[in-house]
Design goal:
314 residues; alpha/beta; Rossmann fold; two-stranded parallel sheet; binds nicotinamide-adenine-dinucleotide
Length: 314
């Protein structure tokens, strides 16, 4: 099949590109390298890379018309500056509208999206959060991602929106895991927040997405989660252990900021039924794989959608 992947140079997108190529698909990636890296993409005769923004409607329509994708995986998103509402809106709402309308023109058979669990807001009314929980995003990233998801569902395309817990692993440059690695190896000060997260291995996510690429699962929204969570301190300790730095184990725990959720536990039962899928990889193995990648691919910068305290740590 011809599969078009937006944001294919990012963490989730590039792993999907590898999975798609391994199954003999032809793949085209559109990415503006805002948070992704061209070096995340393999050299492969069946892979084409277009460096550009999905905000550029003419480019998107032309690329779709030439490539004629049967499946679209829309992984491009802006999130790195919580105060840049314009960039969030441009990429996540307008850019998504461009990708959706180009998909309609080409009669795309299946459209796959990745939604943030923050679509349920930072204070969900139930834990675990079920798929029918009210949608009430309260930060720029989640508001604009939700606009994108609504356009997708309104379009009438056969669309699967995976609402994700924290997806991590090699090539992940957002959130606490790469920040812990970077600051520990640079011998910089650190603290952790008193929050909890459900960490999902990127290859576990790829397995359920590849089932959706193959047409499994009805159009709709699904959670990709384990249903359990770890404290950020436990994640920190796993990174310390993986780096062999027991002297760094003591760490200050700080109260979370007003835009941060204590935890968002997503109920994965619908996804388990529809796709026969569940997470497999332990936190220790996830950290091991991520750290192995960071060791050979130095990180100079990490990203977060959260408003950081003035000393800009985690
Ligand atoms: N990783 C997670 O835990 C998580 C959780 C919820 C949702 N998501 C969603 O999953 C998707 C993939 O996220 P990721 O973790 O791989 O992040 P990522 O930053 O690694 O990947 C996003 C990619 O989109 C690209 N991009 C940004 N703006 C663009 C634009 N205007 N045009 C073209 N490309 C653009 C970036 O350069 C990057 O390569 C995103 O849609 C994100 O919102 C991720």
């Amino acid at each position: 099949m011809n599969v078009l992947v937006t944001g294919g140079a990012g963490c989730v997108g590039s792993h999907l590109v590898e999975n798609l190529l391994a199954k003999g698909n032809k793949v085209l990636v559109i990415d503006n390298l805002a948070t992704g890296r061209a070096s995340n993409l393999p050299k492969d005769a069946n892979l084409e890379f277009v460096e550009g923004s999905i905000v550029d409607r003419d480019m998107v329509l032309k690329v779709f018309d030439k490539f004629k994708p049967e499946v679209v995986i829309h992984a491009a998103a802006a999130y790195k500056d919580p105060n840049n509402w314009v960039e969030d809106t441009n990429t996540n709402a307008l850019g998504t509208a461009n990708v959706v309308q180009a998909s309609k023109v080409q009669n795309v058979k299946r459209f796959i999206y990745f939604q943030t669990a923050l679509c349920y807001g930072t204070k969900p009314i139930e834990q675990p959060v079920t798929i029918t929980h009210p949608i009430r995003p309260d930060c720029s990233y989640a508001i604009s991602k939700t606009a994108g998801e609504q356009y997708i569902f309104m379009s009438g395309l056969d669309a699967v929106s995976f609402r994700l817990a924290n997806v991590v692993g090699p090539r992940n440059l957002s959130g606490p895991l790469p920040t812990f690695y970077m600051r520990l190896t640079q011998n910089k000060s650190l603290f952790v927040m008193d929050t909890r997260r459900d960490f999902i291995f990127v290859q576990d996510l790829c397995e359920v997405v590849m089932k959706a690429v193959d047409g499994h699962g009805k159009s709709g929204a699904y959670h990709v989660s384990s249903g359990g969570d770890f404290s950020i301190k436990e994640l920190y300790e796993a990174v310390v252990d993986e780096l062999g730095m027991p002297e760094k184990k003591q760490i200050e725990v700080r109260p979370r900021g007003p835009d941060d959720a204590f935890t968002i536990l997503l109920d994965p039962s619908l996804t388990q039924q529809a796709f026969g899928w569940k997470t497999k990889t332990s936190l220790r193995d996830i950290v091991k794989a991520a750290v192995a990648w960071y060791k050979v691919n130095p990180i100079e910068q990490t990203f977060t959608h959260l408003k950081l305290p003035p000393d800009k740590t985690v």
